[in-house]
Description:
The complex is a heterodimer.
Chain A: E1 9-13, E2 18-23, E3 32-38, E4 45-50, E5 55-56, E6 61-64, E7 70-75, E8 84-91, E9 102-107
Parallel strand pairs in A: 1-9
Antiparallel strand pairs in A: 2-7, 3-4, 3-8, 5-6, 6-7, 8-9
Chain B: E1 5-7, E2 10-13, E3 19-24, E4 31-37, E5 44-50, E6 53-57, E7 64-68, E8 74-78, E9 87-94, E10 106-107, E11 111-115
Parallel strand pairs in B: 2-11
Antiparallel strand pairs in B: 1-3, 3-8, 4-5, 4-9, 5-6, 7-8, 9-10, 9-11
Amino acid sequence: DAKTTQPTSMDCAEGRAANLPCNHSTISGNEYVYWYRQIHSQGPQYIIHGLKNNETNEMASLIITEDRKSSTLILPHATLRDTAVYYCIVAYGQNFVFGPGTRLSVLP
Amino acid sequence: AAGVIQSPRHLIKEKRETATLKCYPIPRHDTVYWYQQGPGQDPQFLISFYEKMQSDKGSIPDRFSAQQFSDYHSELNMSSLELGDSALYFCASSLGVVGGGSYEQYFGPGTRLTVT
Protein backbone atom coordinates (compact mmCIF):
# COMPACT_ATOMS: atom_id res chain seq x y z
CA ASP A 1 0.00 0.00 0.00
CA ALA A 2 1.03 3.57 -0.66
CA LYS A 3 2.50 5.42 2.30
CA THR A 4 0.98 8.71 1.23
CA THR A 5 -2.39 10.43 1.38
CA GLN A 6 -3.41 13.02 -1.20
CA PRO A 7 -6.64 14.84 -2.04
CA THR A 8 -8.59 13.05 -4.72
CA SER A 9 -8.96 16.13 -6.88
CA MET A 10 -8.18 19.86 -7.03
CA ASP A 11 -8.93 22.73 -9.34
CA CYS A 12 -6.64 25.63 -10.12
CA ALA A 13 -7.12 28.73 -12.25
CA GLU A 14 -4.76 29.11 -15.17
CA GLY A 15 -1.84 31.38 -14.31
CA ARG A 16 -2.23 30.88 -10.58
CA ALA A 17 -0.04 28.75 -8.33
CA ALA A 18 -1.16 25.18 -7.77
CA ASN A 19 -0.35 23.83 -4.31
CA LEU A 20 -0.71 20.06 -4.03
CA PRO A 21 -0.44 18.62 -0.51
CA CYS A 22 0.73 15.17 0.50
CA ASN A 23 0.71 13.50 3.90
CA HIS A 24 3.34 10.88 4.67
CA SER A 25 3.23 10.63 8.45
CA THR A 26 4.99 7.22 8.54
CA ILE A 27 7.97 8.26 6.44
CA SER A 28 11.29 6.78 7.52
CA GLY A 29 14.43 8.83 8.00
CA ASN A 30 16.08 7.60 4.82
CA GLU A 31 13.05 7.74 2.54
CA TYR A 32 12.78 10.35 -0.17
CA VAL A 33 9.66 12.17 -1.33
CA TYR A 34 9.15 12.01 -5.10
CA TRP A 35 6.54 13.72 -7.23
CA TYR A 36 5.42 12.44 -10.60
CA ARG A 37 2.54 13.33 -12.85
CA GLN A 38 0.66 11.41 -15.49
CA ILE A 39 -1.10 13.19 -18.30
CA HIS A 40 -3.90 11.01 -19.66
CA SER A 41 -2.34 7.63 -20.48
CA GLN A 42 1.21 8.82 -21.02
CA GLY A 43 4.11 7.52 -19.00
CA PRO A 44 4.50 9.10 -15.55
CA GLN A 45 6.71 12.16 -15.73
CA TYR A 46 9.28 12.91 -13.04
CA ILE A 47 8.82 16.34 -11.48
CA ILE A 48 10.99 16.69 -8.40
CA HIS A 49 12.18 14.91 -5.28
CA GLY A 50 13.68 15.73 -1.89
CA LEU A 51 14.80 14.30 1.42
CA LYS A 52 14.72 17.06 4.03
CA ASN A 53 15.37 20.39 2.37
CA ASN A 54 13.04 22.30 0.11
CA GLU A 55 13.85 21.84 -3.55
CA THR A 56 13.19 23.85 -6.70
CA ASN A 57 13.72 23.12 -10.35
CA GLU A 58 12.40 24.47 -13.63
CA MET A 59 9.10 22.68 -13.21
CA ALA A 60 8.14 23.06 -9.58
CA SER A 61 9.06 23.59 -5.95
CA LEU A 62 8.85 21.02 -3.20
CA ILE A 63 8.26 22.14 0.37
CA ILE A 64 8.86 19.48 3.04
CA THR A 65 7.82 20.17 6.62
CA GLU A 66 10.49 20.05 9.27
CA ASP A 67 9.10 16.83 10.76
CA ARG A 68 8.92 15.41 7.21
CA LYS A 69 5.39 14.16 7.76
CA SER A 70 3.96 16.18 4.92
CA SER A 71 4.98 18.04 1.81
CA THR A 72 3.57 20.38 -0.81
CA LEU A 73 4.28 20.49 -4.51
CA ILE A 74 4.00 23.98 -5.95
CA LEU A 75 3.49 24.69 -9.62
CA PRO A 76 4.11 28.45 -9.66
CA HIS A 77 2.09 29.39 -12.74
CA ALA A 78 -0.25 26.60 -13.74
CA THR A 79 -1.16 26.20 -17.40
CA LEU A 80 -3.79 24.07 -19.08
CA ARG A 81 -1.06 21.57 -19.94
CA ASP A 82 -0.49 20.95 -16.23
CA THR A 83 -3.84 19.17 -16.00
CA ALA A 84 -2.86 15.66 -14.88
CA VAL A 85 -2.85 13.16 -12.04
CA TYR A 86 -0.09 14.04 -9.59
CA TYR A 87 1.49 11.29 -7.54
CA CYS A 88 3.40 11.77 -4.30
CA ILE A 89 5.64 8.76 -3.62
CA VAL A 90 7.73 7.99 -0.58
CA ALA A 91 10.53 5.56 -1.26
CA TYR A 92 13.96 4.36 -0.22
CA GLY A 93 15.87 3.11 -3.20
CA GLN A 94 13.84 1.78 -6.06
CA ASN A 95 10.58 0.52 -4.60
CA PHE A 96 7.96 2.97 -5.91
CA VAL A 97 4.36 2.45 -4.81
CA PHE A 98 1.87 4.65 -6.64
CA GLY A 99 -1.18 5.72 -4.66
CA PRO A 100 -4.39 7.19 -6.05
CA GLY A 101 -2.80 10.62 -6.56
CA THR A 102 -4.49 14.00 -7.01
CA ARG A 103 -6.30 14.81 -10.19
CA LEU A 104 -5.45 18.46 -10.87
CA SER A 105 -7.66 20.33 -13.28
CA VAL A 106 -6.35 23.69 -14.49
CA LEU A 107 -9.28 25.83 -15.54
CA PRO A 108 -9.15 28.68 -18.11
CA ALA B 1 17.57 14.29 -24.52
CA ALA B 2 17.15 10.59 -25.20
CA GLY B 3 14.25 8.95 -23.41
CA VAL B 4 13.14 5.45 -22.61
CA ILE B 5 11.98 3.60 -25.70
CA GLN B 6 9.34 0.91 -25.61
CA SER B 7 8.16 -1.36 -28.37
CA PRO B 8 5.69 -2.11 -29.62
CA ARG B 9 3.47 0.79 -28.63
CA HIS B 10 0.32 -1.21 -29.23
CA LEU B 11 -0.22 -4.94 -29.19
CA ILE B 12 -3.31 -7.04 -29.65
CA LYS B 13 -3.25 -10.69 -28.64
CA GLU B 14 -5.77 -13.42 -28.07
CA LYS B 15 -6.28 -15.33 -24.85
CA ARG B 16 -3.66 -17.99 -24.17
CA GLU B 17 -1.19 -16.40 -26.58
CA THR B 18 2.22 -15.04 -25.60
CA ALA B 19 3.58 -11.50 -25.85
CA THR B 20 7.00 -9.92 -25.57
CA LEU B 21 7.45 -6.28 -24.67
CA LYS B 22 10.78 -4.53 -25.12
CA CYS B 23 12.35 -1.64 -23.27
CA TYR B 24 15.44 0.36 -24.15
CA PRO B 25 16.63 2.48 -21.22
CA ILE B 26 18.11 5.95 -21.33
CA PRO B 27 21.80 5.70 -22.32
CA ARG B 28 24.07 4.96 -19.33
CA HIS B 29 21.12 3.90 -17.19
CA ASP B 30 21.70 0.40 -15.86
CA THR B 31 18.49 -0.20 -13.94
CA VAL B 32 15.16 -1.05 -15.54
CA TYR B 33 11.71 -1.30 -13.97
CA TRP B 34 8.42 -2.67 -15.29
CA TYR B 35 5.00 -1.41 -14.23
CA GLN B 36 1.47 -2.46 -15.14
CA GLN B 37 -1.43 -0.01 -15.22
CA GLY B 38 -4.89 -1.48 -15.65
CA PRO B 39 -7.85 0.60 -16.85
CA GLY B 40 -8.66 3.29 -14.29
CA GLN B 41 -5.92 2.08 -11.96
CA ASP B 42 -2.58 3.42 -10.79
CA PRO B 43 0.74 2.03 -12.02
CA GLN B 44 1.76 -1.12 -10.16
CA PHE B 45 5.35 -2.26 -9.87
CA LEU B 46 6.12 -5.65 -11.41
CA ILE B 47 9.86 -6.24 -11.41
CA SER B 48 13.22 -4.50 -11.74
CA PHE B 49 16.75 -5.31 -12.85
CA TYR B 50 20.10 -3.81 -11.97
CA GLU B 51 23.18 -4.77 -13.95
CA LYS B 52 21.29 -7.66 -15.55
CA MET B 53 20.28 -9.16 -12.22
CA GLN B 54 16.80 -9.06 -10.77
CA SER B 55 16.88 -6.45 -8.03
CA ASP B 56 13.29 -6.34 -6.79
CA LYS B 57 10.03 -8.12 -7.43
CA GLY B 58 6.51 -6.85 -7.04
CA SER B 59 3.16 -8.28 -8.01
CA ILE B 60 4.32 -10.00 -11.18
CA PRO B 61 2.27 -13.08 -12.12
CA ASP B 62 4.10 -16.37 -12.47
CA ARG B 63 3.06 -16.39 -16.14
CA PHE B 64 5.29 -13.36 -16.69
CA SER B 65 9.06 -13.32 -16.81
CA ALA B 66 11.59 -10.68 -17.61
CA GLN B 67 15.27 -10.24 -18.13
CA GLN B 68 17.84 -7.57 -18.78
CA PHE B 69 20.44 -8.09 -21.47
CA SER B 70 24.10 -7.12 -21.75
CA ASP B 71 23.20 -3.88 -23.55
CA TYR B 72 20.82 -3.10 -20.64
CA HIS B 73 17.66 -3.39 -22.65
CA SER B 74 14.95 -5.48 -21.06
CA GLU B 75 12.16 -7.72 -22.24
CA LEU B 76 8.96 -8.68 -20.46
CA ASN B 77 7.62 -12.03 -21.57
CA MET B 78 3.98 -12.79 -20.93
CA SER B 79 2.50 -16.23 -21.52
CA SER B 80 -0.99 -17.74 -21.34
CA LEU B 81 -2.46 -14.30 -21.69
CA GLU B 82 -5.73 -13.57 -19.92
CA LEU B 83 -8.30 -10.86 -20.52
CA GLY B 84 -7.22 -9.26 -17.25
CA ASP B 85 -3.72 -8.72 -18.62
CA SER B 86 -5.07 -5.95 -20.85
CA ALA B 87 -3.28 -2.89 -19.58
CA LEU B 88 -0.63 -0.28 -20.18
CA TYR B 89 2.84 -1.59 -19.48
CA PHE B 90 5.44 1.01 -18.62
CA CYS B 91 9.15 0.61 -18.47
CA ALA B 92 11.29 3.02 -16.49
CA SER B 93 15.03 3.38 -16.14
CA SER B 94 17.43 4.94 -13.67
CA LEU B 95 21.06 5.03 -12.73
CA GLY B 96 22.39 2.20 -10.60
CA VAL B 97 20.64 1.11 -7.45
CA VAL B 98 23.14 0.22 -4.75
CA GLY B 99 21.84 0.07 -1.21
CA GLY B 100 19.05 2.55 -1.76
CA GLY B 101 19.15 6.31 -1.85
CA SER B 102 17.75 8.74 -4.35
CA TYR B 103 17.05 7.29 -7.77
CA GLU B 104 14.72 9.14 -10.11
CA GLN B 105 12.97 6.79 -12.46
CA TYR B 106 12.26 7.98 -15.98
CA PHE B 107 9.32 6.35 -17.70
CA GLY B 108 8.76 5.37 -21.29
CA PRO B 109 5.57 6.00 -23.26
CA GLY B 110 4.21 2.55 -22.52
CA THR B 111 2.90 -0.42 -24.47
CA ARG B 112 -0.86 -0.81 -24.62
CA LEU B 113 -1.66 -4.52 -24.56
CA THR B 114 -5.15 -5.63 -25.47
CA VAL B 115 -6.10 -9.27 -24.94
CA THR B 116 -9.22 -10.43 -26.76
